[in-house]
UniProtKB/TrEMBL annotation:
SUPFAM superfamilies: Winged helix' DNA-binding domain
Organism from which the protein derives: Sphingobium agri
The protein's name in its UniProt record: DUF3489 domain-containing protein
Pfam families per UniProt: DUF3489
Length: 159
């Protein structure tokens, strides 16, 4: 798998949002020397290419491989400039997080005890309790009760 530097990701991302897919002008705050070095590395890896524009100097543009590596899909991969099509981000379902798993366990009718939460998430008990505090801070009404002599937690919807 190709690994990109942070600056290379920034350049490709900025180019993917432009109608013509051009890497220049550089995003604000990017050093021109560092940007040129990163652009050169993108050309060597075939993630950017030099294209001649009508009546002007050649400029650097993102390639289909560059779009693919940052997770951007486009309907028109060969011609980015003429059609005015902007690429659509890859809309994949959100990756389930442990926090979302924790919340779903708490929203069950019976709630969940810390042992169930640690087993499901792989977290230590103090991490589970910290996550419960985080849910409270985000506005979730986390309630504490006892079930068979053990502390049970339940959660409704966001207040």
């Amino acid at each position: 798998m190709t690994r990109l530097s942070d600056l290379q990701c920034i350049l490709l991302s900025a180019a993917s949002r432009r109608d013509d897919g051009c890497l220049y002008p550089l995003p604000a705050g990017v050093d021109p020397r560092g940007g040129a070095k990163a652009a050169g590395a993108l050309i060597r890896r075939h993630l950017a290419e030099e294209r001649a524009s009508a009546g002007s100097e050649p400029s650097l543009h993102i390639t289909a491989a560059g779009l693919k590596i940052i997770g951007v899909e486009t309907e028109v991969q060969a011609d980015r400039g003429g059609a005015g099509e902007s690429p659509q981000a890859d809309v994949s379902p959100a990756r389930p997080t442990k926090a979302a798993l924790l919340l779903s366990l708490l929203q069950r009718p019976g709630g969940a005890v810390v042992a169930e939460l640690t087993e499901a998430t792989g977290w230590l008990p103090h991490t589970v309790r910290a996550a419960l505090t985080g849910l409270r801070k985000k506005g979730h009404p986390v309630e504490r009760d006892t079930r068979e002599g053990r502390t049970c937690y339940r959660c409704g919807t966001v207040a």
